[in-house]
Design brief:
Largest sheet: none
Structural class: mainly alpha
CATH class: Mainly Alpha
Distance between the termini: 12 Å
Number of helices: 16
CATH architecture: Up-down Bundle
Order of helices and strands: HHHHHHHHHHHHHHHH
Number of strands: 0
Shape: globular
Strand content: under 5%
Amino acid sequence: MFIRALEAVATMLILIGIGYFFAWRGWLGANGARRSPSISGAAGHEAQLQGEGNRLLSAIVIRVAMPGVILSNIMTAYTRENLAAQLSLIAAPALSIAAGIPIALLLARLLHVPENRRGVFATMTAFSNSVFIGFPVTRAVLGESAIPYATLYYLANTTLFWTIGAPLIRRDADKRPVSAAAALKRLINAPLATLFASFILVLLGVRLPDFVLSAAETIGDTVTPLSMMFIGSMLYGVTRAGIRWEKGFGALLGMRFLAAPLIMLAVCAPLGVTGLTLQAYFLQAGMSAMTQVAIISHGFGADSEYASLGVALTTVALMLALPVYALFMSSAL
């Protein structure tokens, strides 16, 4: 497992480097702005086009590739008989993430994180990057058989993020609460819709044609390269603006890479979660901060620069943490 983790880190670094290089060269949309003589104020327009390139990568991963992964794995890993038992396993990640939220809010107060950053800090601390980092890492380190459990973690992580995390970010910029309708609208996305549709098909005993599952699997195989390229492009944008240490980042690293995995182990023990499920949950809990925190912070008018720095910092730190996770899992889990 340790060797697989090192190989996963090497693969991630190569793909992230490609995304970083593409962003530097302007191949994600900004190059045209830099070279076109008809565009004045190139820097601002370049940034806008770079953002459009990132949004395209993000949209492909979330709306196309992720549904492919989920459909192919759920339809092959679950049956009508074992689905109910498997769904009960979602309690562990839900309880673990829920336990981390008040701890994060308490840390924000104790560390005197500015009030306009506390929601961003709490969500970065409590929610892991289960899509852009979690799925590729789980697949690389634990194999395809762990993806169904990573999907259950994703379900808990995403549901709690949009019902609790997003309102906390909104509170940083605007004290008005997020309406239930707005939260529900954001909660229903392509991966979750595919997940629920797959569960229904399994319960009904519907078997999709092999060519459909093959197509879904092929599409799903693009999750890792596209996700890593997106992260690389995002890191380019952060490093170009300048990386600096901000208040709360030490606690963020400690929570993401030490406390969150340990909380997951503490929750799983009394629930009897063991084996590959426990390893997948442990790995997912210890991922970098959720990329969507930076995206939503920008949309709500919160401190998106602080969020982007936190996401970038934890993404880089994960490369060091991943081999340690592998050593621990191979010897203790």
